[in-house]
Hints:
Elements: H1 2-8, H2 11-24, H3 28-35, H4 43-51, H5 58-68, E1 72-76, E2 83-86, H6 87-103, H7 113-131, H8 139-145, H9 163-177, H10 188-195
Antiparallel strand pairs: 1-2
Amino acid sequence: RRRWLMELGDVALSENEVEEVLKQDPGRPSRDIVAGGQALFTAEDIDRWTCSRLSVDGPEWSDRLMREDKTLVVRSVDSEHPLFTTRKQLDLEQQVAALASKLTQERNPLFDRAKLDRAIADVEAAETRAKGKPFKLSDEQRGLLDLLEYRFGTTNGVAGSGKTTVMAVVHRYCELTDQPDIGLATAQFAAENLQK
């Protein structure tokens, strides 16, 4: 942007316009950061936003914006690198959490116990073939699969706890019932496993 403005020739005028916008609306950088896909951000992200638009006074503006932006909410009180979001983003997250919580209590009208049992048998047979020895899901894994009786469920666990095997059963169950399955993961390795 700065190169484009320099070629245009009036960087000072453009930066004055940015300063006027920030005086009127100190929440603009945080909203732009969230709109760009970051639900959580740091003071450094605000610095980057201001310094990319203001060549000289970027850091000073960042400090001012952090004080004046009434939409900022601290999400992690780390003295060195606190994480922020906006009130609107936090409200949206709370609405999603409330809806997800409600869905965990609603029975799935499409649930089919016989097809779940078949999916379990299919995955156990595939694991037995792959490992060359008998394989059975643990009681915990079977209990986790009971979440399919409800409209929404989540799981987490340490590496090696059997999440991938459970997700294989979920995938097979969804194939058998013609339902979509969507797996989400925060770790790259887990996301790659879900794609398989």
